[in-house]
Amino acid sequence: MPNDISALLSSPIEHFINTNVAILEGDKFTDQALNLMKERDVRSVLVSHVGEVVGIVSKTDILFKVMSQGRNPGKVRLREIMTSPVLAVGPQNTVQETLSIMDKHVVRQIIISSHSSVLGMVSRDDIFEKIHMATVSTAHTAIKGTPVCIINPKAIVYMKDVSSAKLMCPYCESPFDTKEGLSNHIDRFHSGSGVLEGDVRRMFE
């Protein structure tokens, strides 16, 4: 994994907080929650009771717990379908720790809180989007920036097309079409290799 992505996963989750949080009292109806989510462009609302957050309702909750069951969203209160208790992490928890918690509890969003105060929320989609952007940025730098070693040259075997060649160098197997080309090549690159003059002459016979 590239270093910048490793740094991203080990960074505090507070850098990913979305402070655009919607909160409604638990006795409000789900249609009101849908309108607020649309207005605020968020995926869920936090459900409160006497000023304290006690649950969360997402668009998915409303879809499966209300709409798919033929219930009237104007008559179903948030407290009836909310998920409670709400999962929360501190702002200094790392991105990796936060993702692990979401994986363990099979949730896509989590609250960031400090001293019982809600600072905001973080979604799995937002985190993965930033990881994807970091991956693209790393690839872009590798291609357009300072040359980097992507493949070990020693692990590469360059294949030569010798199907149409008439002559081949006995040292490096480079193909040549003419005797003169092969002779010049040997004189230039392999003059100190100990080849005998008679051997070279026999190659041309």
Write the layout of secondary structure elements.
Blueprint: H1 3-9, E1 23-25, H2 30-40, E2 44-49, E3 52-58, H3 59-65, H4 78-81, E4 88-89, H5 95-105, E5 109-114, E6 117-123, H6 124-144, E7 167-168, E8 175-176, H7 179-189, H8 197-203
Parallel strand pairs: 1-2, 4-5
Antiparallel strand pairs: 2-3, 5-6, 7-8
Structural summary, described in words:
The protein has 2 domains: 3-133, CBS-domain (Roll), CATH 3.10.580.10; 157-203, no CATH class. The model is unreliable at 146-165 and 193-204 (pLDDT under 50). Helices cover 39% and strands 17% of the residues. The strands form 3 sheets. Strands 1-2-3 form a 3-stranded mixed beta sheet. A 3-stranded mixed beta sheet has the order 4-5-6. It contains 8 helices and 8 strands; from the N terminus they run αβαββααβαββαββαα. It is elongated, with a radius of gyration of 33 Å. The chain has 205 residues and is of the alpha/beta class.
**Fourth-tier CATH superfamily name of the largest domain:** CBS-domain
Helix count equals 8
Q: How many domains?
A: 2
Widest sheet: strand ordering: 1-2-3
Content of β-strand: 15-25%
CATH class category label of the largest domain:
Alpha Beta
The largest sheet is: 3 strands, mixed
Task: Give the beta-strand count.
Answer: 8
Query: How would you sum up the global shape?
Result: elongated
Gyration radius, in Å: 33 Å
Query: Per CATH, what is the topology of the largest domain?
Result: CBS-domain
